[in-house]
Structure formats: structure tokens, C-alpha cells
Design goal:
The protein is an all-alpha fold. The protein is built from 9 helices and no strands. The protein has 2 domains: about 70 residues, no CATH class; about 110 residues, no CATH class. The radius of gyration is 24 Å and the shape is elongated. The mean pLDDT is about 80.
Length: about 200
């Protein structure tokens, strides 16, 4: 790598010829969010470094958008309450699951209840959505806190947690995945233990 001159740094690129970057104005409008990102950045398309920054920003924002499955919020403070769309019940439940999972993965929360309060989602609706109506017990915040505390222990026994809280193996397995971002923040990445 480098330019090939013996006394130059390994990262030196002094022999690289700079070619002027040409941007078709129509490409700015035609590219995914290209025009909007150019407006936000105040991109000067006559300046090569501005054009490169613009391209990099488009790639970064697109990657975040895809990762969040179309939902994106930059800061916890501005995360809006969830507006559940009209439609089929299963679609509403999927929307709740996506929104809660997104917030758990994106923001440094320590409890699902923080997310539910921020999104204005009732605990019973949350359980119904995440278990696709397979959880028939009366849900309380106290019950969830006890369950979550057991699940977030450093080395939990998931079978024991299932018996203690009256949950099936599948429900415990599903919530193990939901709570993984919090567990990783609390204990570092420890992988999954067997159920």
C-alpha cells in the first residue's frame, strides 16, 4: 500500500491523481433522500469534499434506515409516542414489536418499561403483541419487573424462569431475544444460554 516512496508513510497517497468529481444535478434529486440530505448539509456540489461528504451521509443514513426497518429517531428525548396504524390486529402487533425492539437496540435503556412509557404502550398490549395473544394471565408492571429482573440476571436458568412465571418455553425464548440488547449493556456480550 502507500505511494511506493521508501521514506514516505505507509498511508501516503502522494502519487494519486485527483480527478474532478462530476455530479449530475438530476442524480441529486433522483437518489434516495439525496436532495433532502443536500439541503440539510448545505452541500456545495462544486466542492469535491462536500460531494464526498454528501455521498457518505447518504450511505450512512440509508444503512441506519434499513437497520431500523424504516423507523429512525436520532435521540431518546425526541422519540415520539407510537401511533398504532389502523389495520389488521396482526399488523398492529408487528408495528408494536418493531417499535419496541428498535428502541431497545438503539437507546441505552435498562428496562422495557422505560420504552413502553416513552412509546405510550400499555403493558397488556405489549404482552399481547409480543406473544401474539398467547399470554392469558393478567399483566401488571410488577409482574413484568420481576420477570425482567430474572431474565437479566448474569446467568439465568430460562427453564426455571418459565416455570416460576408460568410461561412456555417459546415465550421465554422470544423474550430472551427481546431483552438481549439490555443484557448486553448490563453484562457485555455473553451469548445465549440454553433454555
Amino acid at each position: 500500500m502507500g505511494c511506493g516512496v521508501d521514506n514516505h508513510n505507509q498511508d501516503c497517497l502522494c502519487d494519486v491523481r485527483h480527478l474532478r468529481v462530476q455530479v449530475d444535478r438530476d442524480a441529486v434529486s433522483a437518489m434516495w433522500q439525496g436532495k433532502r440530505i443536500a439541503e440539510i448539509l448545505g452541500t456545495d456540489f462544486t466542492d469535491d469534499s462536500d460531494v464526498i461528504e454528501w455521498f457518505a451521509t447518504i450511505v450512512d443514513v440509508h444503512d441506519k434506515w434499513v437497520e431500523a426497518q424504516g423507523e429512525f429517531c436520532e435521540a431518546w428525548e425526541v422519540l415520539p409516542p407510537l401511533c398504532i396504524s389502523d389495520g389488521r390486529t396482526l399488523q398492529q402487533w408487528a408495528q408494536i414489536r418493531r417499535s419496541v425492539n428498535y428502541a431497545l437496540k438503539t437507546f441505552p435503556v435498562t428496562s422495557v418499561i422505560q420504552v413502553l412509557n416513552k412509546l405510550c404502550i400499555d403493558i397488556e398490549l405489549f404482552m399481547t403483541a409480543f406473544t401474539t395473544n398467547k399470554f392469558t394471565q393478567k399483566m401488571t408492571y410488577e409482574w413484568w419487573q420481576a420477570f425482567e429482573q430474572d431474565m437479566l440476571a448474569e446467568k439465568p436458568c430460562y427453564a426455571e424462569i418459565g416455570r416460576k412465571h408460568g410461561l412456555s418455553r417459546q415465550v421465554v425464548t422470544n423474550f430472551r431475544g427481546v431483552l438481549k440488547p439490555i443484557k448486553d449493556r448490563l453484562h457485555g456480550h455473553v451469548g445465549f444460554q440454553r433454555v
